[in-house]
Amino acid sequence: MGKDGGNNTLMKCVFCGGELQTNSVTFSYEENETYILVEHVPAEVCPQCGERLYTPEVTDALLQFTKQQIEPVRVIQVPVYEFTKIHRVVKYMPMYS
Ligand SMILES: [Zn+2]
Q: What is the DSSP string of 46-76?
């Protein structure tokens, strides 16, 4: 592999300074209580805090997508939880040293 790409600059996370790594992520989008997931979206992901960065091309494609009517590859059920119910179960645990 040559170094003529010029597109290989290591980007740093704006939040923690971690070195972003090219990865495949699931993009989630919500509108009027309808949740949409787009799988295998290329992104620069921070291994330290999980921050994601999309290239302008990818951002553009995702914005275009949300305006289009495309058949999903599959439909999944999404469980919804109420935090106050979780909170009653999950008590603060003492830290052991
Ligand atoms: Zn980070």
A: -TTT--EE--HHHHHHHHHHHTS----S---
Centre of ligand 1 from the C-alpha of residue 30, in Å: 24
Can you name the residues that pair with 28 across neighbouring β-strands?
Answer: 37
> What residue ranges define each of the domains in the chain, with the CATH number in brackets?
21-89 (3.10.20)
- Strands across the sheet containing 34-45: 21-31, 34-45, 52-53
How many angstroms separate the alpha carbon of residue 10 from the centre of ligand 1? 13
**What CA–CA distances, in Å, run from 18 to 12, 59, 70?**
6, 22, 36
Residue 36's closest CA among 4, 70, 80? 70
pTM of the model: 0.68
52-61 tens-digit pLDDT: 999 999 999 9
- Rounded Cα distance between 41 and 13, Å, is 18
